[in-house]
Amino acid sequence: MIEGLPSLLVVPTPIDDESPASWILRVCEKHHISYWMLLRNFGIKENYDPDISLRAEDLLRIGRGTKIPEQRLRNLGNTFSAVRRDRFLTALLITDRPCRVKYRFCTECLRTDPVPYFRIQWRFLDWKYCPIHRIELADHCGQCGGPRSGMSYGRILTDKTLNIRNCPRCCHSLAAHGPPNVNAQASDTIVALQRHVVTASLIDMNEIDGPVNRGVLRWYLLWYVRRYRPEFSISARSQRPRASFLDIGDDLPAILAMYERRRRGAKLSQGKAPDEPPAIARKPAKPPW
User: Fold this and answer.
1) What letter would DSSP give residue 5?
2) Per the record, a Pfam family (predicted)?
3) I need a labelling partner for 280 at 20 to 30 A (CA). Which of 103, 112, 143, 210 fits?
């Protein structure tokens, strides 16, 4: 980093399904700088959740003058833009403490990645199983039990920057343990539904055909929980589901089938949840997950 002039000669290339927090951490690793120092050098307000708090303009400032295309950095910064617009959707994200980023992770993905990184989908409560390895995601270090949480893992330990593969508490590799057994619950239905929840949560207005607003997703999620798991007791005040949508056991196949048969272009009433899950007409696009 050049003193007095916020500029980096090189930054890592964002990976297709990489989260903003993961990319920021890799920038820190590459330049042997802590997360807090990075923000201060670029005049960015300190925060504990770069996925939500850092906007496209902030990432463009960090990547200014490098070979990374501006549009790629802008897309990365806009990953969670839908969540910023509708804070109801933050109920779908994993957090350590209020407003602190936290991720689950697939030990096999971290072990086999040529360049280890944290996926966007790992941030979601409903992304419980790796669709590639069919194992349940971990949320703590197998060595010391420490959670992979907060931006503390962007700090510098002694004279060495902490690698994204390592536990921030004991520095042990998060992927060092033997491969876990395939989880029988990671069925095609579960994998398909968790993809749906993540894709619907991140959909942006410019990817929607027709006059569909963000309320579509909100009402669908409320309908989903009220109809099938009323014991989750959504607060009338906050209107936020209090459990993961995948915690519905044997009802999953029926729910997924009903969603596939949904009425196209369903009208939404602001007074109550819809009788059927609404349709979301989207331009053809295959998400990286």
Assistant:
1) S
2) TniQ
3) 103
Distance CA 32, CA 105 (A): 23
Tokens of 66: 């490098």
Containing 156, the helix (H) or strand (E) segment is strand 156-157
CA distance 242 to 29: 36
For residues 196 and 202, give the distance between their C-alpha atoms in angstroms, rounded to a whole number. 10
Residue in the structure block whose two tokens are 């040529």: 114
Retrieve residue 227's tokens: 């109809």
| Partners of residue 95 on adjacent β-strands | 101
* Residue 156 to residue 153: CA distance in whole angstroms: 8
What is the distance between the alpha carbons of residues 230 and 240, in angstroms, rounded to a whole number? 13
Tell me if residue 136 falls in helix, strand or coil: strand
Q: Whose CA is closest to 149, among 179, 123, 185?
A: 123
- Interval 66-77: pLDDT, tens: 999 999 999 999
The angle at the Cα of 31, spanning 26 to 33, to the nearest 5 degrees, equals 90
Q: Which residue has the tokens 């990953």?
A: 79
Identify the burial level of 216 via C-beta atoms within 10 angstroms of its C-beta, where 0-12 means exposed, 13-18 middle and 19 or more buried. Answer: buried
Locate 184 and state its tokens: 């029988």
Mind giving me the DSSP string for 169-201?
TT--BTT-SPPPPPPTT--HHHHHHHHHHHHHH
Of 9-13, 168-172, 259-263, 268-272, the range with the lowest mean pLDDT is: 268-272
- Give the helix ranges, DSSP H, for the chain: 20-31, 35-41, 50-53, 56-63, 70-77, 81-85, 107-112, 188-202, 215-228, 252-260
